[in-house]
Amino acid sequence: KDVQKEREPHVCLSKEEVKEKIQSYNSSVTDKLKMTLNANGIYTGFIKVQMELCRPITVQSSQSQGRCAHSNNETAFYLPDGCVNTLHISSTNTVREVIEALLKKFFVADNPAKFALYKRCHKEDQVYTCKLSDREHPLYLRLVAGPRTEMLSFVLREHETGEVMWEAFSIPELQNFLRILDKEENEQLQILRKRYAAYRDKLEEALGGVWKPG
């Protein structure tokens, strides 16, 4: 189970320290996703973000695939579980910019304010998660942690239920979500009815066996 952890302070690195860390980072990379230090001190590299979205995202109908519910020219689309996206970013890119870039890659029309980027760290057999602030720099975190995703990984999620900015949703989006909830509720009811019908059949079969004349 994930454990919430307070945000670690950002440590300013000198250009020489950044250069040394990038050299160390690149020497440990196994997937060819190396970092590059530019003459102006800005460095570029790659981060992988796992998409853990429970609610549907709104995309253009022509870009949608999978389970969906249509509404005019837009589609409420569920991303596959465990979907991972790789982004090429720079050390100046903030969390907010990374979220916007992810949504753009998936042709998502939803307001970026609905989403949050988390870092997930593995330490001492525990999994710690921490929601990143909009002003933090993911590539810096990747550089400091090194390339191993089991030590640090990034996850995109919706804001927690109590934090949802409902004013960021349009009326058609909210109506579409209600239709999806109704559909899911009906599906769950059908599953429950079939499950209990199966139980009933087994009980009646068992009772028939008990009372059956020897």
UniProtKB/TrEMBL annotation:
InterPro entries: RA_dom, RASSF1-6, SARAH_dom, Ubiquitin-like_domsf. Signal peptide: none annotated. One of its GO terms (biological process) is signal transduction. It is found in: Cytoplasm, Cytoskeleton. Residues 163-210 form the SARAH domain. SUPFAM superfamilies: Ubiquitin-like (SSF54236). Residues 71-161 form the Ras-associating domain. The keyword Lyase does not apply. GO terms for molecular function: zinc ion binding. Its main location: cytoplasm. Keywords: Cytoplasm, Cytoskeleton, Metal-binding, Microtubule, Phosphoprotein, Zinc, Zinc-finger. One of its GO terms (cellular component) is cytoplasm. PROSITE patterns: RA, SARAH. This is RASF3 protein. The gene is Rassf3.
